[in-house]
Design a protein that fits this description.
two-stranded antiparallel ribbon; single chain; 2 strands; mainly alpha; Diphtheria Toxin Repressor, domain 2
């Protein structure tokens, strides 16, 4: 996968994760909510939502509400789990929470499933969550 393709996939994962997070806070999620949360322009979010629809990761209701499909939710939950676990671990190590969250966002996209599962097992054990 080229660098540009990798960054595009990373961006789509971030959008899915954001929709998931917003759906936990809001009764309905719209494109404007995503744009506000990420501090992105409405046109940029609109293009991304079209890509997510085309890949069947989301559906959009007649009222403009964004809904994750089963596949979209699976990806979003995976990214969110990696993000929260890595953030918690970095904070545990003494990293400032905001820096930890930013670093976790970078790491969550690049770590292989094998390495993540090994880290997860270790981190959960150290944090007493196993």
């Amino acid at each position: 996968m080229s660098y540009i393709q990798h960054k595009a996939e990373e961006s789509l994962e971030d959008y899915l994760e954001t929709i998931l997070i917003l759906s936990k806070r809001l009764s309905v999620v719209r494109s404007i909510d995503v744009a506000t949360e990420l501090n992105f322009s409405k046109p940029s979010v609109s293009v991304a939502m079209k890509n997510l629809r085309n890949r069947e990761y989301i559906t959009v209701s007649e009222d403009g509400y964004l809904l994750l499909t089963d596949e979209g939710k699976k990806i979003a939950e995976s990214v969110y789990e990696r993000h929260t676990l890595l953030t918690d671990w970095l904070v545990h190590l003494g990293v400032d929470p905001q820096i930890a969250a930013n670093d976790a966002c970078k790491m969550e996209h690049d770590i292989t499933p094998e390495s993540y599962e090994a880290m997860k097992k270790c981190i959960l054990s150290v944090l007493g969550r196993d």
